[in-house]
Amino acid sequence: MTDRQTNFLLTDLYQLAMMQAYNEAGESATAVFEFFVRKLPEGRNFLVAAGLEQALSFLENLRPSDDDLAWLDQSGHFSRELIDQLRSFRFTGDVDAMVEGTVFFPDEPILRVTAPLPQAQYVETRLINLLHFQTLIASKAARMVLAAEGRMLVDFGLRRAHGAEAGLLAARASYIAGFAGSANVLAEREFGVPAFGTMAHSFVQAFDSEAAAFEAFAKARPENLVLLIDTYDTEAGARRVVEIAPKLRAMGITIRAVRLDSGDLGALAKSVRRILDAGGCGEVTIFASGGLDETEIARFLAMGAPIDGFGVGTSLTTSSDAPALDCAYKLQEYAGQARRKRSEGKATWPGRKQVWRRFDDAGRMAGDTVTTKGDPQGGTPLLEPVMRAGQRLSPAPSLSESRSHAAQAVASLPQALRGIEQAEPYKVEISASLRALADEVDRFIDRSAKRN
């Protein structure tokens, strides 16, 4: 079986069709494409860039296999000349990008590809696929982190993710955004995302009594012991924990937490807290799961529910309130001439760009400027060189470094943007030089149209 995640054929047909047409027309000069988001989803105040590591890995390792080329040949879709050219295909271009975990806004490019036109065109599909998904999930996760106000968050979303890769990358993206870890075991092996897990209701049901189930699980998994107490009656389950806690302590086993997964979680958390405290189990924390999102988390905290952590599944890995971003990867320059799209509602700003961010005296973000590359503005430039001639310029940052960067970036947001309610948009200015370039490109387009 082929590795579908890195297979050269994991692309749209029109990318290969355009490659053939470019080659036949002799169009292989340097092209510049940029990836950006056109607008924020409703209710959102910011986005968090993620997926760069997988994007760079894709570019570094991109090459068709003999099987890929044989299939293309027998498919009849493409010319023999294209297939022969693809035998030596490698990505040889440059990439500039925002560091993973960077907060960004509409019209701000988070990645720029500079490469021969056929190469830059071909990589569009998979780059969007990788950057869009992890950015979507990291942005959703960041809202949950803000809503949780320091409480533990764990990704429980693998089973309802839209496929295996989505579940795996969601664990990575949510960890960058501040989640404590994931239930996904492979995410720990692949990325070092801490794995967490408790028990299922089926485990409790498999024993003749709840107490027997708790004791059996405690003996098998004595470290970081979390017991699921709502299989039958949540308050009775809490009393059962109080009853067996002394016996487990005598064995050297400490109950770390109980998990609530159904019912009125806010009210149940309060009653369970009372039962645990009265029974001498004040050190046992309460972890909640079951259909949660940032709005529910914020509601529980507002009502004073004594919940110490949350497991979030479907709403995280599907970004259920906003399952897609209005994003694009567009040609901004070709053969030294700035280019732009002028389609109604989808016009682009032309040329190679840089995003400059200003901060106030307290270290909070005060405004961004999108401008042409080489036009310094006040503040800090956000796009950095990360790949030249198809090779990374430095080793990838560790996931903990990306996580720290994201935490600092979100902490620097203006206070109004840190809430989960929609706020006044953050100020992003388009520079005079970029507007002038757009006017120049428009004149070029109009002149060209008249000549033809």
UniProtKB/TrEMBL annotation:
What EC number(s) is this enzyme filed under?
Answer: 6.3.4.21
Asked if the keyword Cell division belongs to this entry, the reply reads: no
Catalytically driven reaction(s): 5-phospho-alpha-D-ribose 1-diphosphate + nicotinate + ATP + H2O = nicotinate beta-D-ribonucleotide + ADP + phosphate + diphosphate
Please give the GO cellular component terms listed in this UniProt entry.
cytosol
Its annotated function is as follows: Catalyzes the first step in the biosynthesis of NAD from nicotinic acid, the ATP-dependent synthesis of beta-nicotinate D-ribonucleotide from nicotinate and 5-phospho-D-ribose 1-phosphate.
Post-translational modification comment from the UniProt entry: Transiently phosphorylated on a His residue during the reaction cycle. Phosphorylation strongly increases the affinity for substrates and increases the rate of nicotinate D-ribonucleotide production. Dephosphorylation regenerates the low-affinity form of the enzyme, leading to product release.
Protein name per UniProt = Nicotinate phosphoribosyltransferase
Instruction: Return one GO MF term.
Output: nicotinamide phosphoribosyltransferase activity
| A Gene Ontology biological process term | NAD+ biosynthetic process via the salvage pathway
- Domain Nicotinate/nicotinamide phosphoribosyltransferase as annotated: residue spans: 153-333
CDD domains with a match to the protein in the record: NAPRTase_A (cd01570)
Q: Which NCBIfam families match?
A: NAPRTase_put, PRK09243.1-3, PRK12484.1
Q: Which family does it belong to?
A: Belongs to the NAPRTase family.
> Pfam families attached here?
NAPRTase, NAPRTase_C, NAPRTase_N
